[in-house]
Amino acid sequence: MKAGGPVAGGVVGRQPEVGMEKAILVGVDGSAEALDAVAWAADEAARRHCRLLVVNAYVMPRAEAAFGWSPEAIKEDAASVIRAARERAQEVAPGLAVDDAVIVDSPVSALLRKARDAAMVVVGLRGRGGFPGLRIGSVSYRLAAHSPVPTVVVPGVVPLGDTEVVVGVSGDHRAAPVLAEAFAAAAASSKRLRAVRAWSEPILPSPEMRPLLYDPDEVRGSHARELAEALRPWEERYPDVTVVRDVVEGQPSVVLAEAGRAARLIVVGARGGRGITRPALGGAAHGLLHNASRPVMVVPVQ
Predict the structure, then answer these.
(1) How confident is the model at residue 277 (pLDDT cuts 50, 70, 90)?
(2) Where is pLDDT greater, at 78 or 129?
(3) Nearest to residue 204, comparing CAs of 189, 214, 192?
(4) Percent over 90 (pLDDT), the chain
(5) d(C-alpha 24, C-alpha 46), whole Å
(6) Could you tell me the sign of the dihedral formed by the alpha carbons of 237, 238, 242, 247, in that order?
């Protein structure tokens, strides 16, 4: 079924049936980056045996700024974006159930609204708009910071073979929702999970100063024990997932980006909800979105 003409503030196109498992939502805007996101999302939906929902959102230009484009031409352009996305999804996962929608609203508002009923939202690293030279677009960053469900940012063409999932494990209660998503992703793909705990020495006023009674081996051992304790209930719940534990000294974003160079997915938690700034996501998620070469899943935590 083709997407029809959009209406202001409304949604048209195929809609998921009531009572079905939550779909994977992917935002598209006609860019090559968006189609890369569609490919990853379609593959993930096939692995999880769920539907894919493709959404194109745009703001209708004011009449005096339309540059000769009629509303009908704008609607047809939106429909063509959907068609291209559906074709890419079927190329990656033939037979996959794909729904679609065209929404007249800002992309961030539209995707955040649709995300409430989705399993996750997937977007490309950047789209057709934005400022040249910025690695990640504002739409992708704002979704990662504010989405109520996990957001996956796809940085380009990603090999779709069975490779491991990498997860950054913090030392507090916020690790639980991150581990839940990471184990679910690993169970749906290679059944191999690399759990990473990054740590670093305390920062002191002078590089000549050293912490009193500081033993790196003891600190590393403490982190290793905490990591094992955090993983134990999830390993029991997912006995088929092979877990590799890494305790590495270094900044979390750098350590995770290195560990995930050949990963299918890097999973990290983020606070979210505090604006388009570094504190909105925290250092690890912020750094990964700007530097990782593989898809990054940002999981909202409290």
Answers:
(1) very low
(2) 78
(3) 214
(4) 62
(5) 10
(6) negative
74 falls in which pLDDT band (50, 70, 90)?
A: confident
196: Cα within 13 Å, side-chain hemisphere: 27
Contact between 107 and 27 under an 8 Å Cβ cutoff? The reply is: yes
The identity of residue 107, as a single letter, is P
| Nearest-angstrom CA–CA distance, 258 and 266 | 10
SS (H, E, C) the chain: CCCCCCCECCEECCCCCCCCCCCEEEEECCCHHHHHHHHHHHHHHHHHCCCEEEEEEECCCCHHHCCCCCHHHHHHHHHHHHHHHHHHHHHHCCCCCEEEEEEECCHHHHHHHHHCCCCEEEEECCCCCCCCCCCCCHHHHHHHHHCCCCEEEECCCCCCCCCCEEEECCCCCCHHHHHHHHHHHHHCCCCEEEEEEEECCCCCCCCCCCCCCCCHHHHHHHHHHHHHHHHHHHHHHCCCCEEEEEEEECCHHHHHHHHCCCCCEEEEEECCCCCCCHHHHCHHHHHHHHHCCCCEEEEECC
The residues, ordered by sequence, that sit 6+ positions from 226 with a Cβ below 8 Å of its Cβ are 171, 197
What global pTM score does this model have? Answer: 0.86
Helical packing angle, 283-291 and 252-259, nearest 10°: 40
pLDDT at 35 over 80: yes
Tokens 């929902």 — which residue? Answer: 53
Joined tokens for residue 177: 């929702």
pLDDT digits (tens, 9 = 90+) for 21-31: 799 999 999 99
